[in-house]
Sequence to fold (178 residues):
Amino acid sequence: MENSYSNAVEFFKEKKTGENRGVESLILAAFELRTPENVGAFIRLAGNLGIDKVIFIAEENALSTAKIARVAHSSYKHVNFSFVQPSEFFSSIESDYQVVAVETCENASNLFKTKLPEKCVLLLGNERYGIDQEFLNRANQSVFIPLLGNTKSMNVSHAATLAAFEWSRQHWGLEQMI
Fold:
C-alpha cells in the first residue's frame, strides 16, 4: 500500500469532521504569554477545532502581530481573539462558564480522568511561570497533563492542544473527531 501526501484542504473535503462548526461552549484563555508564536498557535488551534473565542490575559499586547499572524495562518482572520487586562478577565466570561486551569498545582486532577464542564474556559499559563496564584485560586478546578518522560514541562501551545482535544473528545464523542 502506497502512501502519498495529500493537501489538507482537499483531504478534509472528503472527511466528515464537523467542519465550520462554531464551538461556543469552549473558550481558550492564556495568561501572559511571552512569545508571538505561542499566541499564534492558540489562534490556529481555535481555528482547527472551530472554537469561537480566545482570550489572552496581558497588560498589553507588545508582541509581533506579523509573527502571530504567520503562525495562526488563516485562523488569524476567522477566530475571535482579544487581549484583556488581568483585572478584566473573570468579568469578561459569562457566569455559566467554569474556568479550568491547566496547571501542575496542588489539588489538580489528571486531565484524562477528569470530566470537563460543557461550558468551559481552558486557562493556560505563561511559558515560564505558569498561571498566577490569584487566577488559580479563582478557577473552578485545575487539571494536569500526565508526563511519562524525564522532561516534566510542556510547551503551552501543546498543552492547550491536548486539553482542547480532550474537551472535544468528551463533549463531541470520538465519532465526531473521525
Summary: The mean pLDDT is 88. The helical segments are 8-13, 36-49, 65-72, 75-78, 133-138, 156-172, 174-177. DSSP finds seven helices and seven strands in the chain.
